[in-house]
Amino acid sequence: MINMRKKLLFILLFVILMPIYLSSTGCNFSESQNKIIDFKCKNLESAIRDKIDNPSNNICVSDVEHITELSLIGYEISDISPLSNLSNLTELNLNWNEISDISPLSNLTNLKILYLENNELEDISAISQF
């Protein structure tokens, strides 16, 4: 009887604690949305963390796909590749940064307004379809 209680207690704890552990990653569980975004530029990561109010958990595609407007003026951002995950972005201000490659923006089909003043750009052909 005691052995059965221990097993039942273990199963109960497992059922209660497992969802808590799994949710601690900060990502939901659908295949395409649980991809963790890799930030090479810590300044961009910090700005996105502030925007989504996520100071420490992993940042997943599902965490950023609701963002429609983003202002990143003067953050000294050099790598914007994680912005390719912001599929609903309509307005983006990247003025006064250190960006030299804007090709990650090429698939943001909802993007209507883009500011790129004072960056290190030499080629903007990646966004010629806008």
UniProtKB/TrEMBL annotation:
It holds the Pfam family LRR_4. It comes from Acetivibrio saccincola. InterPro entries: Leu-rich_rpt, Leu-rich_rpt_4, Leu-rich_rpt_typical-subtyp, LRR_dom_sf, SDS22/Internalin_LRR. PANTHER family: LEUCINE-RICH REPEAT AND IQ DOMAIN-CONTAINING PROTEIN 1-RELATED, LEUCINE-RICH REPEAT-CONTAINING PROTEIN 9. Keywords: Leucine-rich repeat, Repeat. It comes from the Bacteria. PROSITE patterns: LRR (PS51450), PROKAR_LIPOPROTEIN (PS51257). This is Leucine-rich repeat domain-containing protein. Signal peptide: none annotated.
